[in-house]
Here is the input.
Amino acid sequence: MPPTTPLPPPSSLNRATAREFMSVLFRRKAIIIGLFVVTTATVMVLALSTPLIYSSTGRVLVKRGERESALSPTRQVYDAWEEGLGSELEIVKSYAVLQRARQIIATEHPGENIAIDGSRVDAEVMGKSNVVGIAYTDLVPRTAQVVADAVVRAYVEYRETDPTVQYPKQFFDRELSQLEGQMNRLEDEKRAFITRTGAVDLEDQQREQIGNLGLDQQRLSDLDAQLTESRTQLRELQALQTHADVDLPTLGFNPNETYTNEAALTELKRHIVDQQAHVAELKERYTDQSPEVQNAEATLASLKELLAKEVKARFALTQSHIDALAARRGAIAHDVAAIQSGLQQMPSQARVIAAIDRELASIKLRYDDLVKRVNDAKTTEYTSKPATVILLSPAGAPVPRNTRDYVRLGLAPAFSLVVGIGLAFFLDGLDLTVRTAGQAEEALDLPVLAAVNERRRRRAG
Here is the structure.
């Protein structure tokens, strides 16, 4: 038997040579080169088309919670750290803060067209702390720094004048103004009513008017008595004056009256009586036609005529006195009627004033309560703020964000070569065509004794 040729070790059957490795690369060179070119072109396009942006950042410290005392700066925090600072980050990007930042830019940089894009405002917590970084990115470095500084200042101002916790000045001023207007209106209404009716202090006025009414009624009664007496005497004297056999009467009125002179009348009557006696005496001695008697009778007639004139004048004065008494009585009667009318109207006036006073007292009570609440709100504002923001650093110099890192740009094509080679070997492993001696030995499980080198065939011209 011919000797048996020993088989090579198993490891030599599956060993791939450098020739086979290179042949795989040359067969799959389209995949490798194509992936490299596509990756390199994509990286270059993205790097060259992405604009260079700048970012400016400022930092603030947020002290949260409620103060334990008005005399102590320490605070007691009730909410979670993540939740509280997360809310602060959203406030930084809120409409109110951005609107205030626009006002700051318009005031400090007039004429410059600097717009704020809310999507470019960023805020983040600096580590495990209460420090918040506020940044703004823009293509122009100066714009990034100006806007970032305005947003930081606007956020600090917003927290200092937070409308959710600050003293509601507009609300309290409006309410106080309304109550003051109502009180002024009621006071003016009460003043006008008192001026129109004269009702100042109705209880005292009522007591005073009742006393005046009693006095006026007493005076009115006295005047009625005097009028009745004077009119009666005047009628009687006028009636007696018509009788020829009755001596000329005198007025027996009160001698204290200014126009009464009873002594003069009495003296005049005494002279008349004496003259009558003298005439009688002369008639006894002389005849009626004697000059002495004629003269005496002429004198007596003159005295009687004087007495008649005096009595007539006294009658006229008495009538004038009666008219004066009647006028006084009319005035007093008018006062009595006015007092009675006023007393009748006082209950209704008292009800009106009492209603105004009740409403005024109610409004004053509300006003006092509101003033107390105003003071409480001011105290709460300055002693129990939920958060205080302290500016640590303003917006710094802008820093470029997307710089071109050439090392990373070079790594992308290099990794594409590695991926292309791996993909080439993967696809070559899926191909079952036998091309090399190793593949033949592996497929047949027999050794290869000889191999014929490949020759390139020249095409006939």
User: Anything to note?
Assistant: The beta strands are 54-64, 66-69, 72-76, 121-125, 131-138, 387-393, 399-400. The radius of gyration is 66 Å. The CA atoms of residues 320 and 349 lie 42 Å apart. The mean pLDDT is 76.
